[in-house]
Amino acid sequence: MIFGGKSGEHEVSVVSARNVMAAFDRERWEPVPFGISRDGRWLTPEETASQLAAGVRTLQGGHPLPAAAEALAELGRCDLAFPLVHGTYGEDGTLQGFLELCGLPFAGCGVAASAIGMDKALMKQLFEANGIPVPRYVIVRAWEAEDTAAACEAVERAIGYPCFVKPANGGSSVGVSLVRSREELPEAFRAAFAYGETALVEERIAGQEVECSLLGDIDPQASLPGEIVPDREFYDYESKYAPDSKSELHIPARVSPAVAERVRELAVRMFRAIGGEGYARADFFVRGEEVFANEINTIPGFTNISMFPKLWEASGIPYTQLISRILELALARHERRRR
User: Fold this and answer.
1) pLDDT in tens, 49-80
2) What DSSP line would sit under 6-55, residue for residue?
3) What's the rounded Cα separation, in Å, for the pair 125 and 120?
4) Which residue, among 280, 12, 244, has the nearest Cα to 4 in the 3D structure?
5) Residue among 8, 59, 4 at smallest CA distance from 240
6) CA distances from 40 to 3, 5, 89, 127, 308 (A)
7) Who contacts 29 (Cβ-Cβ below 8 Å, separation ≥6)?
8) In 3-state terms, the chain is what percent helix, strand and coil (to 5)?
9) Nearest Cα to Cα of residue 272 among 191, 211, 216
10) Is 175 in contact with 149 (CB distance < 8 Å)?
11) Among 160, 300, 283, which residue's Cα sits nearest to residue 211?
12) What is the pTM of this model?
């Protein structure tokens, strides 16, 4: 299990790893933890286990990758990898490419699907090309936003207010702002560009936030849809992970049977559009009977409050069985490609 990493979602990744570690079927699998610190240093399994036992939220120490000989030697003795690094340098295809170079089977999406799933701008364009409905959006680069007036005018022509400004390569709602006027746009751009050079500006769909989990390779299956009711104006990082969060999860989602089926159908189409494999979670906005694709997450959260495992549990696959199924898919894909 590889987790932690250099992204803004480091702490979420550590919590996900703790939950997955506890859920393994120990009669079938022996989990070996590999932590990556916030500055990209690799810890050995012993160092990782020690920090997990100490209850840390942020991994410390470790060794830079070229010098991480002991950790890499231990990694090479494993049968397969379960990447749980959320966000950049883990969910964006970089870690998957490294594991491909190592010849090590790994769980979840491959390099291309991971890269597309992490780039909201590319993702939206690919969804559009496949006839999947998305909210109106505009892509703004950091250098384009230096001309504040021109950037504001581009947003106003394409979308108007209110709108969301998001880092194109972020997750867990890190760096996301809800903008209601031109005066708020420059600060929203600054928040987004703190995480990359590309921002996605998207219309706000006033309605329900609905999610659907996916599992499989050749014939991916969609779970029951679930609904999130945030405890504030939108489902931001604090609303997701703060200990005192009052956000509500409704499983199944409070939508009509037709909308529920539409969500499941679009989730599979989104997964196939990016070339998804293994597992993922698709997110939607629902307005009445209209369904809009928001994004697809190729390494969704595995915390005790995360929708991905909760939706599968409600669909008949308990957490421990779900982890085993994900690992079985990884081994089957590797064997299929080896042949």
Assistant:
1) 999 999 999 999 999 988 889 999 999 999 99
2) SSTTHHHHHHHHHHHHHHS-TTT-----EEE-TTSPBPPHHHHHHHHHTT
3) 9
4) 12
5) 8
6) 11, 6, 9, 32, 27
7) 323, 324, 327
8) 40, 20, 40
9) 216
10) no
11) 283
12) 0.91
Contact 91, 118 (CB under 8 A): yes
Pairing of strands 163-167, 177-179: antiparallel
Provide the token pair at 103. Answer: 């010849």
The DSSP secondary-structure symbol of 67 reads G
Task: Quickly tell me which residue has 């680069």 as its tokens.
Answer: 141
Two tokens at 68?
């991480």
- What pLDDT sits at residue 128? 96
CB 330 within 8 A of CB 80: yes
pLDDT digits (tens, 9 = 90+) for 314-328: 999 999 999 999 999
Q: Hunting for tokens 């002991």 — which residue is that?
A: 70
CA 154 to chain CA centroid, Å, is 28
Pairing of strands 198-203, 221-222: unpaired
Please give the domain boundaries of the chain with CATH numbers for all domains: 2-108 (3.40.50.20), 136-203 (3.30.1490.20), 207-338 (3.30.470.20)
Tens of pLDDT, residue by residue over 257-276, are 999 999 999 999 999 999 99
Cis amide prior to 64 (ω within 30 degrees): no
Report, as an integer, the average pLDDT of 164-171. Answer: 83
Q: Which helix (H) or strand (E) holds 175?
A: none
Residue 226 tokens read as 């679930």
The pairing of strands 177-179 and 208-216 is: unpaired
For residue 253, give both structure tokens: 């989602």
Q: Cα separation of 268 and 272, whole Å?
A: 6
